[in-house]
Amino acid sequence: MKTLVTSVALSAMLAGAAVAADFTLDPRFTDADGDLIADIPTDPAQLVDPSVLIFAYTPVEDPAVYAEVWAEFIDHLSEATGKPVQFFPVQSNAAQIEAMRAGRLHVAGFNTGANPLAVACAGFRPFAIMAAKDGSYGYRMAFITHVDSDIADLADIEGLTLAFTSETSNSGYKAPSALLREMFGWEPGTNYTPAFSGAHDNSVLGVVNRDYDAAAIADEVMIRMAARDVIDLADIRTVYESDPFPTTGYGVVHNLTPELQDRIREAFFSFDWEGTRLQQEFSPFDMDEFMPITFQEHWSVVREIDAATGVSYTCN
């Protein structure tokens, strides 16, 4: 029943938004074909062919863990492109976007909520997400609390401390705060005390350690932490779940040479997951391949949430 209520509330929230959010790219990019992502420059002088490719995964609590998880893929990417590939541990969504915008990041996985800003401001061109062989994909936004807390449903959070991750996160801030506004008319700082942990991992640990009364998270992060024995799911109560959202989107910065972009794209779709650390890490979700996507189609629900909540894609 709680999931059904979530779906109804999200549907009501999106009903007031345009079918597609008013999405525009930074003026330094062009979109001649109307696919909502930056075009590859036609002027050879604007193209880059770096001697070393820099790859970054979305911010997590312990980037060193994910450097090992991605090691086999990075070797495959290096072989496919003929270039050394360096793993870049990022500490925040803002730092990741700024690194790509400044030309210091070439290949990346941006989380769900940060994808539109990376596309608009950094020239990110997403083309893949993780999926199961049957084509299923995505994660659920969840509200969690400690199993021993008095919180039984969302209404019980009023007056308490609710952890978010960052203001650019879909499941860590935008969707849950909009949901509370739609359901109860609540505003952060008025009806509950918001706290920003910086990452889903931090929010989960904060709930387990009773630092926060509740948290809004992406459930896939919590499940992966449990699979690594970082937490015990028995310590956590989930009081709310959403329908699935698209998960981390993978792609490249727009101004790599077309030939290099093609080789990077092929590397994602030719990677053999069998027996790798990547498969082990994401096996709780039956994720074992990269699936082609488009930002225009697969991120439409995220742009709709942004439109409903007044999110601006203004680039600093």
From TrEMBL:
GO terms for cellular component: ATP-binding cassette (ABC) transporter complex. Gene3D superfamilies: Periplasmic binding protein-like II. SUPFAM superfamilies: Periplasmic binding protein-like II. InterPro entries: PhnD. Residues 1-20 form the signal peptide. Keywords: Signal. GO terms for biological process: transmembrane transport. NCBIfam families: 3A0109s03R. Belongs to the phosphate/phosphite/phosphonate binding protein family. This is Phosphonate transport system substrate-binding protein. It comes from Rhodovulum steppense. The lineage of its organism: Bacteria, Pseudomonadati, Pseudomonadota, Alphaproteobacteria, Rhodobacterales.
